[in-house]
Amino acid sequence: MADASAICRSHSFESDEEIDGIRKRLLTWYEANKRDLPWRSRKAQSLNEKAYAVWVSEVMLQQTRVAAVIDKYKIWMKKFPAVEDLAKASLDEVQELWSGMGYYSRCKKLHEAAQKNTKVVNDLNGIIPTSCEELAKQLPGVGRYTAAAIASIAFNERVGIVDGNVIRVLSRLRRVGVAHNSKIAENHFWFCSNKLVDEECPGDFNQALMELGATVCTPKSPACSSCPVSSSCLALKQVHEQRKFASSKFSKTDNGSLPDIESSGCSLCLPPTEPWDSDKGVTNFPRRGKKTAVKTEEFISGVTSFRSNDIDYYLIVKRPSTGLLAGLWEFPTVPFLSSNGEKKIQLLGHLRKFLSEDELSEVEIRESKTVSHLFSHRRHIYHIHKIILSINHQTSQSLSKDLVHFKWVTEEELFRLAISAAVKKMFEASGDIVSPNVGSKTRKRKLNGTQQSLEKFFKSK
Ligand code: SF4
Fold first, then answer.
1. What integer pLDDT is reported at residue 164 of this predicted model?
2. Of 34, 233, 273, 282, which has fewest CB within 10 angstroms of its CB?
3. Are residues 299 and 200 in the same domain?
4. Structural domains of the chain, count
5. Burial of 309: CB neighbours in 10 Å, binned 0-12, 13-18, 19+
6. Pair 309, 419 in one domain
7. What whole-number distance in Å separates Cα of residue 191 and Cα of residue 323?
């Protein structure tokens, strides 16, 4: 928690009665309004199974919308119903299933944690740790938030939770006006959530708080009139006081703003340099932190293909096992260095890693397009080229060279692999390069089953 001497009392809760009231109203509201989500309705045979189910859902839900997670979660739990099943799977299989949800490092860490040589399956005989502290200590990639979610929901440990939804609710309830990601604010949110969490039903309470943030106390248009904890909300109280003041005779003598009701020098109040904005109402909270500067990097990519029996086959390469998008598949891509001359020359130089001189001797290189994609704090700009080979396909069966893995796949196979959203954009962009007249109908028809896999293609030779 923040230094008590430097913060106003209003940022904490007034009394045990107030806390009890918030718990009761929130739990009652949750019981009546909770969304029917697969991780909530899933029946588990054991606590271990329940913990695994919560763990998977919490990892999937980080930085991904609920709607985008629902189907993936169902498929995942069907394929890997227990932590042991996940441990036995290959990273490729796991990443393929994850495909489309982004932030692949989450998936990799989840898999790592379940792998045979990690704590869960080996050292702990497949038993997932039961306390928040042990979960965070023992499981790779499990931070304070995920550990608190598993411990409270699966094992009923009385521990609070802090995620983006909870931050929004708490910052409004307690009028926390400093950057939400500052150390002092973060500590205060954990202090508040641990103070508020229900003693009997910590898991339900934590889910209720997150649900309130996701469905009622939303970022841009919170539905305060249907909020179960509005009577304890200081941001809403400030809105009402502001309105009252604006219509009073005192407001005529100044600019119509409510005089500063906070003590000066409080570390959690709105800073004097960025005071309350009456147009924003409760959305004055939470306050954003400084944006991390986005770094821009440029690449040259070759959507490289050959055609046989009216089917296109694409060259894809596996990324290194560490770093951004580790282990995913992509089109041959090389950093663009303007000092190295023409883009086409740089790209052909890179393709020599995968293709022979013979294969490269007859290529058609079509105009480049540019695709931009934002990865968290990095913007990648890809200069796309469509490279069409007239090759002897028998030579294209080689799958690795100098420890770089690559393969040829059909469009259908490509979209089943673990590829990033940027690769999908590149593919679409390259389609436009090839023939602007080939519309989405043609593309869909191909996907619907007339394509044969490359494996079958080679077998039939
Ligand atoms: Fe959020 Fe409004 Fe409820 Fe306050 S009253 S917690 S701002 S929805």
1. 95
2. 273
3. no
4. 2
5. exposed
6. yes
7. 34
Q: List, for the chain, all residue ranges whose pLDDT scores fall below the cut of 50.
A: 2, 263, 395-396, 398, 434-461
Ligand 1 center to 385 CA (angstroms): 51
How many Å apart are CA 296 and CA 43, to the nearest integer? Answer: 46
Q: Where are the alpha helices (DSSP H) in 370-439?
A: 411-416, 421-434
What confidence tens digit (pLDDT) does each residue in 241-271 have?
988 888 776 655 555 555 555 546 899 999 9
CATH number at residue 139: 1.10.340.30
How far is Cα 411 from Cα 417, in angstroms, rounded to an integer?
A: 10
Distance between first and last Cα of the chain: 70
DSSP letter for each residue of 227-273: -TTGGG-HHHHHHHHHHHHHTSGGGGGSSSPPP--SPTT-SSSPPTT
Whole domain around residue 357: which residue ranges?
295-460
Output the pLDDT for position 451. Answer: 35
Distances (CA, A) of 40 to 53, 86, 106, 401: 9, 20, 21, 47
Q: Is residue 265 part of a domain?
A: no
Residue spans of beta strands (DSSP E) within 138-256: none
Predicted confidence at residue 102, as pLDDT, reads: 81
Please identify, among 199, 222, 245, the residue that sits at the C-terminal boundary of a domain: 222
Rounded to whole angstroms, the Cα distance separating 431 from 417 reads: 19
What is the DSSP pairing of strand 378-389 with strand 295-308? parallel
Q: Within this chain, do residues 320 and 172 fall inside the same structural domain, yes or no?
A: no
Instruction: Specify if 141 maps to a domain.
Output: yes
CATH number of the domain within which 311 lies: 3.90.79.10
Q: What is the pLDDT of residue 254?
A: 53
pTM across the whole model? 0.80
Active site residue 58: yes
Domain boundary among 182, 204, 222: 222
Measured from the CA of 168, which atom of ligand 1 is nearest? 1
pLDDT for res 453: 37
CA–centroid distance, residue 223 to ligand 1 (Å): 7
Contacts (Cβ under 8 Å, ≥6 apart) of 236: 172, 224, 227, 230, 282
- Ligand 1 mean position, distance from CA 390 (Å): 63
Tell whether 189 is covered by a domain.
yes
Same domain, 217 and 304: no
User: Which of 211, 227, 283 has most ligand 1 atoms within 8 Å of CB, for mutation?
Assistant: 227
Residue 316 resides in a domain:
yes
Catalytic residue among 14, 31, 49, 58: 58
Residues 6+ positions from 204 with CB-CB distance below 8 Å = 27, 30, 31, 198
